[in-house]
Amino acid sequence: MTTSSKTRRRPGPAKGTPRAKRLPRAEREEQILGIAEEIFARQGYSVTTMEEIAEAAGITKPVIYDYFESKEGLLTAGIARAREALRTSTVEVWQAMPEDSSLREMFYVGVRAFFTFIDDHATSFQLIQQEGALATHAHQGVEDIRGEQSRVIAESIAAALPDADPLLLAGYAESVIGACERVAIWRINHPGVTAEQATDIVFATVWQGLDSLMTPARV
Length: 219
Hints:
Elements: H1 25-43, H2 50-57, H3 61-68, H4 71-95, H5 103-120, H6 122-128, H7 136-160, H8 166-188, H9 195-211
């Protein structure tokens, strides 16, 4: 058989797979990210191929490259999406609290919101945990997102403690994020631990240091 007579197959959906309808770019991006999130979380980043994601989305592989440039770019975007959803859910919980809520109450509710999000968005959390698969430059992008989350926490604390050292508050915020993430990972192997119990663990561990900055009137 000559080269010209060979059957050429364009990479993309398998034969018989329904083609996805045309979508605006933003909607297509969300669709690809949602599908990639599920596959990465189920199979792991390293073994997942772009062909699998393209086939599941009913599109060709070049479309994914057009949106995200590489598999690493796709994972980076997915992690950013998951972290943004986590940050947004936490801020929304704080905004819904009464204006006279104490910092202690806000702190507890914020930590609780983190574990509630994890329970409600299991695939998102699994995706976040795969950031170790990223190269250095992509990992920095994820750290930037984590830094934004830390800034939001520090600003919320500063609103109740306007005289506290901003650098110290930033350090406490990093401690909160680190404690939440480590306890969340620990819970994967201890499924009997509830979100409420996980919140109590983090609260008991981190609150004492923050509480030391407060006067009795602010507790």
